[in-house]
Specification:
Blueprint: H1 2-12, H2 17-25, H3 27-41, H4 50-63, H5 67-79, H6 84-98, H7 100-117
Helix pairs in contact: 1-3, 2-3, 4-5, 4-6, 5-7, 6-7
Protein name: 4-carboxymuconolactone decarboxylase
GO molecular function, one term: 4-carboxymuconolactone decarboxylase activity
Domain Carboxymuconolactone decarboxylase-like: 28-109
């Protein structure tokens, strides 16, 4: 698991808990989960950039009212240079797909984190 964990830590900037927990259960299981992370987050020619992928998962988190995840992803978006306009567009798309009630629920926490990050 050490090689896979190191690769994912370099790719994502941290070791996801799922890989650490899987490693406590079975090394092959941890390698499999690490492979899934790598397949999703690795940049490929003509594919989405890391920033674009984070914008998409941010939108999904917001639209499904996963506030804790949305705030955490917002920190990643900041690291990858997302603009306030890109984040606002993602929030509006989340309102469109998830409904206004979810927008009301997630927007307060996200806007507070945006202010904290200097957006």
């Amino acid at each position: 698991m050490e090689k896979a964990a190191k690769e994912i830590k370099e790719l994502k900037g941290f070791l996801p808990r799922s890989i650490a927990y899987a490693g406590q259960i079975n090394e092959d299981f941890a390698e499999g989960i690490a492979g899934l992370y790598k397949a999703i987050w690795e940049e490929r020619e003509d594919g989405l950039s890391i920033k674009q992928k984070h914008i998409i998962v941010f939108t999904v988190a917001c639209s499904s009212n996963n506030i804790q995840s949305a705030v955490k992803i917002l920190e990643r978006l900041h690291k990858f240079g997302a603009t306030r306009t890109e984040i606002n567009d993602a929030m509006m798309l989340a309102a469109w797909t998830g409904g206004i009630q979810h927008f009301t629920d997630f927007s307060a926490a996200v806007l507070k984190e945006m202010e904290k990050l200097g957006y």
